[in-house]
Amino acid sequence: MAVTNKENGAETRTAGNGRAALRKAETRARIKAAARAVFAEKGYEKANVSDIVRAIGMAQGTFYYHFQDKKSILMEMLNEYFDQFRAVMSDWMQSEDAAPDVTYIFARRVAVLLYENKDLTHIIMQEAHNADEDVRRLIHGFNRFFYEQVRSGLDLGVALGLVRPMDTRLAAVALVGMIREVVANRTRSGEDIDIEHLIRELAELQNHGIRLRPGAGNNF
Amino acid sequence: MAVTNKENGAETRTAGNGRAALRKAETRARIKAAARAVFAEKGYEKANVSDIVRAIGMAQGTFYYHFQDKKSILMEMLNEYFDQFRAVMSDWMQSEDAAPDVTYIFARRVAVLLYENKDLTHIIMQEAHNADEDVRRLIHGFNRFFYEQVRSGLDLGVALGLVRPMDTRLAAVALVGMIREVVANRTRSGEDIDIEHLIRELAELQNHGIRLRPGAGNNF
Amino acid sequence: MAVTNKENGAETRTAGNGRAALRKAETRARIKAAARAVFAEKGYEKANVSDIVRAIGMAQGTFYYHFQDKKSILMEMLNEYFDQFRAVMSDWMQSEDAAPDVTYIFARRVAVLLYENKDLTHIIMQEAHNADEDVRRLIHGFNRFFYEQVRSGLDLGVALGLVRPMDTRLAAVALVGMIREVVANRTRSGEDIDIEHLIRELAELQNHGIRLRPGAGNNF
Amino acid sequence: MAVTNKENGAETRTAGNGRAALRKAETRARIKAAARAVFAEKGYEKANVSDIVRAIGMAQGTFYYHFQDKKSILMEMLNEYFDQFRAVMSDWMQSEDAAPDVTYIFARRVAVLLYENKDLTHIIMQEAHNADEDVRRLIHGFNRFFYEQVRSGLDLGVALGLVRPMDTRLAAVALVGMIREVVANRTRSGEDIDIEHLIRELAELQNHGIRLRPGAGNNF
DNA sequence: TATGAATGAGTATTCATTCAT
DNA sequence: CATGAATGAATACTCATTCAT
Question: Which of B177, B204, B211 minimises the CB distance to A181?
Answer without folding.
Answer: B177
